[in-house]
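TA notes. Do not distribute before section.
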Amino acid sequence: MLDMNYLFKLTMEKNASDLHLTINSPPILRIDGKLLVTDLEPLSPENTKYLIYSILNDEQKANFEQNKELDFSFSVPGLDRFRVNVHYQKGNVEAAFRRVPYEIPSIEDLGIPPIVYDLVRKPNGLVLVTGPTGMGKSTTLASMINIINNERESIIISIEDPIEFYHTNKKSIIKQREVYADTHSFSEALKRALRQDPDVIVVGEMRDLETIATTLTAAETGHLVLATLHTPDAPQTVQRIIDVFPPHQQKQIRIQLADSLQCVISQLLLPRANKKGRVLATEIMVATPGIRNLIREGEIAQIPSLIQMGAQYGMHTMDKCLKELYRQGVITKEIALSKVKNVVEFERL
């Protein structure tokens, strides 16, 4: 009979990023961004529930049945770790598994510009990693933490839901707190973190007003804060943070954000032209005096122009990165055109 260990091994052998268990379908793998339906038997509702429940403890089962949702991470002995979401679909239990390798990749392996080294060496301020779901934000965050851990003595407090990459103490002391297991919420853990003598605070996701407000305060009060946000580019990231707050607070938030922001790294994972894996495309916005002034004045629409002109500070737009990847033959023209903002300029180049 099919068991989860077999499916986890299959996920690793095929080098898939995700495994999906859904009723009336064989297990499905996501490989390099594309879905592959395995040649296994379709899963009945009973089989699907049996497979998923086989990796849950009694507390997790009770939690899931009460809340109808469950997020957790799961280690497979001798294999990788998985980030798991269990959910109901038309009354049936289903699940999605995201593979999380034990080994934390380096900035170079990921293809992130070396400016990241300068950012993680800053004593304070806010560094944001943004992009849609499944674009490697958590991996980028983990590699940034790893640089700090290797280079300097710091107390690093990381708040995650769930914990993905496990860090071991090297030069730094790293405290990884899982939402719902170790703390009730991001905002609650963040408030407590400020009393735990941190040098670096990592926020797995800035999801609500309270979390964003506390994150900004932490960045203002002398801590280096690394966080993620589900936004596609730097201008929309800035706008999203401001728009979360009621109108009467937005001027103050613009000032806070302008003073504390260090950089926004926006990223996309795109299929390679040779169909072997995916490549990272990035947009980098560094908070220069000009950028800070635009944020302070609420002139967010002018930010892309300064990013275009800011190459000497390590800045580049997503469009420029896509052009370079296409020129080098790393991605196809179709993929580039599906992601660029200014299609006319891209075609001209």
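Switch to the second chain here.
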Amino acid sequence: MKIIAVGNSFYGDDGVGAAVLEHARAHGLWPEAELVDLGTDALALIDHLGPGGLTVVVDAANMGLDPGAVAVFGPDEVRMRIRSDHLSLHGFGLAEAFDLARRLDRLPDRVRVVGVEPARVEIDTGLSEAVAAAVPGIIDAINAEVSGEH
């Protein structure tokens, strides 16, 4: 199992994935999981994908929801759910990364994207209150995926 953060922790709410990994490490969550922070290089996601197991990708995503709202969806839904796949500094979006992984036969058996609606994506601002408050809900969403619940 892998839990992968995509985003820029120096760019406000775009750092939500890194914050989730930090919380997981601090609390000993998912000891069997590989926790990976990709930063802004969504293309590097392909290097961390492969057959077998569950892969959860956590990223800030403009979905048209209230700030801090959490949505869980599969790789085929990325283009439908995320209004802008290049939220911050990602030069290569999640949809493109999943498409390429599928063509290379590197898509895991189960991939889930945990999207978090940002309140602000501005340099050196840290997480907004709404997104920081969403971290426990993000952890719950990941736990539901880990336990196989939907």
